[in-house]
Amino acid sequence: MRIKFLIFLYLINFIGFSQTKDDDIDTLAIELAFQEQDSLKVKTSLKLIKSLYDIGSYDRALQYVIESEKLSNALNYKDAQAEITYYKSLIYDKKGDYINAISGFSKSKDLFIALNDTISIAKVNNSIGLIEVKKGNYKKGLQHTLVAVQHLQNTQHYDELNIAYTNLANTYNYLSKPEKAIEYYTKALDVQKLLNKKRDEVATNFKLAELYSLKKEYRKAIEVYENMLNNDSLSREDRAHLYPKLGGEYLNFNDFENASKYLIKGYNLNINQNNSADFLIVLNHLGELNINKNRLIIAEKQLKKSGILAKELKNDKELLRHYLLMKNLDSIKKRFDRAYIWQQKYYELKTVLLKKQHQLSNQIATSTITNTSLSSFDSLLHEAETKPIVQPLETHYSSNENYDKLKLLFYGVLAALAIVSTFLIFMYLKRNNTIKYTQELEEKNIKIELQNEAFLEQTKHLESVNNVKDKLFSIVSHDLKDSLSSITGFIDLLRDGSLSRDEFENLIPELSENASNASLLLFNLLNWSKSQMQSLEPKPTLFDVQEVFKEKVKIIENRLENKGINITDLSLRDFAYADRSMVEIVIQNLLANALKFSKIGDTITVSNHISDGNCIISVADTGVGISKENIEKLFKNNSFTTIGTNNEKGTGLGLSICKELVELNNGKIWVESTLGVGSTFYVQLPKNRPTKD
Fold first, then answer.
1. Which terms are listed as keywords in the entry (predicted)?
2. Which of 120, 306, 313, 511 is the most buried (most CB within 10 A)?
3. DSSP state of 690
């Protein structure tokens, strides 16, 4: 036997020199060929098997495994038998032969248990767990991998630990347990950094970011993606995959500037690449971005492309998103018939996906973990060779009469089954026809309801526009006319030379006040009419409240000085999440009101603070104050106004505009005032994007 083994090694050695240039493998092959002691031959052969496995030369490694297995069995060399069986199973796994792989792992596990080799047992459990996950037996795979991790996590076998953590994370991810998946992806990432496995880090970071996004923790997802951009090993393909994802996360925050930057990069990298899946994501995100920016023609072109591509790739997730975006686009363009069709497609596909998810959840929930112990590879082979003896049915009965009765009973049951099956099929077809008819009626009713809603909206809009027109003419004919008439009369006096220089200088403050009043009046009228004649759509972003205060205080500095009013700025650097331009209009109106109702020597104070996670803005004055009766009239839609301390006039629309703009941004506005003491107006705004129920 030894002579045969030596000849075999010489042959493999000759083949090895012609097929590989690896010096270590060649050295081991030469060393093996000239060794005489069998135990040394087994040890060297085992080193050679490991080296060949590491470089992916599985067929050649398997040749050494077969011969080494024979020799180690002849020597009853337990340690070698366990290692060789383990590597043999690894090779079967790589070749996709999971049945032999599982059998071999079970045998090697028994050998390692006999040797009390805890670490090797953990490695085997890890390998079995990986195979079970590949086969779809997630619970069983999870059980084996958890046992492996318990033994590996306090050792320095980092490669095995990396595989185990990643396998656990993938399994928990598939089982829809994101918290556990994130926990083990994070642990895997720490090990990968320790091992300097850059490519593994990239793959794990992608998984982590996707899970954070799934949990709507978009800031964490953005942080992971942006950290990945600093990874030197990030390939062009990785960036082509990353940019669409990162752009989409910024889109969730309505940060259109950053979203546009990364989506354009993703578009340029993916347009000529073979990875159509990433290009599909880019097109959907760009379509959503352009809908938000009201670039509807470009959005429609991009979404048409994404719909075709999603169907080609059979990407149901992105196709579902495409349907939703098309529904939104056609709703904005008032194409309600088409919007209804997209909505119907959306719900049909969503129903199909939910059914698949439900079926998969049931399959996972009802799957059982078998505890069959494959204690020996040889016994398994022995069982496979044993054939069961099947006897004819007649031998179970004592006579032909019994056999005839059994046949009669069998045919009777078969006939009954045929009758029942026919009845069930008939009932099923009838039920389907009823359901189909009901669905058609429901679809027609929904379509009619959508059309009626559209007509009602148009009617209300026309009535609203007509009311706005009447209010505008009324206001312009009174308040605005008075302010402009005063300015015109002053100019006529100047032109006629009816004013002396002293009179001219005395009247300048009044002229300035009238011009300011007219300007603020026009400003409020324009914003109010816009809010009444079309639906205002806020574009919320994070902005510094202190910056807005400083800008608006600077605008009224001259008017404060002319009227002899002091201003105190107690504002702090803090951020609110709202439409900045709308908040600027609110603050400008509140400052103008405080100025209007303050006297010489009074003080206006602006400040902000945080309360219950919200940003609270306040504008206070020590002016004339407001009576309780008038406080109730302030924020109504009808115009309500009083004369200022210098006979300033207004439209009475400023505070009603403020209320509408604040509420559009998910905020509140209120006032606290004491007659003769002063007033304080408060505005509450969110500090981050409100969550939708």
1. ATP-binding, Kinase, Membrane, Nucleotide-binding, Phosphoprotein, TPR repeat, Transferase, Transmembrane, Transmembrane helix, Two-component regulatory system
2. 306
3. P
Helix, coil or strand: residue 684: strand
The β-bridge partners of 621 are: 604, 679
- String of DSSP letters for 405-440: HHHHHHHHHHHHHHHHHHHHHHHHHHHHHHHHHHHH
Buried b (16+ CB within 10 A) or exposed e, 257-269: ebbbebbebbbeb
Complete edge-to-edge strand list for the sheet that includes strand 668-674: 566-570, 603-611, 614-621, 678-686, 668-674
What amino acid occupies position 394?
A: E
C-alpha 409/C-alpha 622 separation (Å) is 102
State the DSSP code for 26. Answer: H
Reported as a single tens digit per residue, the pLDDT across 404-455 is: 666 677 777 777 777 877 878 877 787 777 787 777 777 777 878 777 777 7
For residues 313 and 316, give the distance between their C-alpha atoms in angstroms, rounded to a whole number.
Answer: 9
Distance (Å, rounded) from C-alpha 685 to C-alpha 583? 9
Question: What's the rounded Cα separation, in Å, for the pair 459 and 445?
Answer: 21
**Cα 690 to Cα 578: distance, rounded to the nearest angstrom:** 10
The C-alpha atoms of residue 575 and residue 477 are separated, in whole angstroms, by 41
Phi, psi of 569 (to 5 degrees): -100, 105
φ and ψ at 324, to 5 degrees?
-65, -45
Write phi, then psi, for 682 (nearest 5 degrees): -115, 140
CA distance 52 to 113: 26
Half-sphere exposure of 19 (CA within 13 A, CB side): 15
Flag whether the pTM goes above 0.90. no
Nearest to 309 by CA among 285, 284, 330, 326: 284
Task: State the Cα–Cα distance between residues 537 and 518, nearest whole angstrom.
Answer: 27
pLDDT at residue 587, rounded to an integer: 92
512, two tokens? 């300035």
Q: CB burial class (10 A; 0-12, 13-18, 19+) of residue 425?
A: exposed
Strand partners, 610: 615
Between 40-49, 280-289, 331-340, 510-519, the lowest mean confidence (pLDDT) is in: 510-519
Distance (Å, whole) CA 638 – CA 652? 8
What sign has the CA pseudo-torsion 333, 334, 337, 340?
Answer: positive
Q: With contact defined as beta carbons under 8 Å apart, do 624 and 548 qualify?
A: no
What are the φ and ψ backbone dihedral angles of 283, each rounded to 5 degrees? Answer: -60, -45
- Amino acid letter, 309: L
Query: What does the angle CA 99 – CA 100 – CA 103 come to, to the nearest 5 degrees?
Result: 90
Q: Are 238 and 202 in contact (CB under 8 A)?
A: yes
Share of the chain above pLDDT 70, in %: 77
Task: State how far the Cα of 237 lies from the Cα of 277, in Å rounded to an integer.
Answer: 12
CA gap 433, 298 in Å, rounded? 42
CA distances from 1 to 6, 68, 74, 78, 115 (A): 9, 12, 10, 20, 27
The shares of helix, strand and coil residues in the chain, as percent rounded to the nearest 5, are: 75, 5, 20
Burial of 574 (0-12, 13-18, 19+ CB in 10 A): middle
Q: Render 470-528 in DSSP notation, one character per residue.
A: HHHHHHIIIIIHHHHHHHHHHHHHHHHT-S-HHHHHHHHHHHHHHHHHHHHHHHHHHHH
Listed residue (645, 511, 505) closest to 565, CA to CA: 645
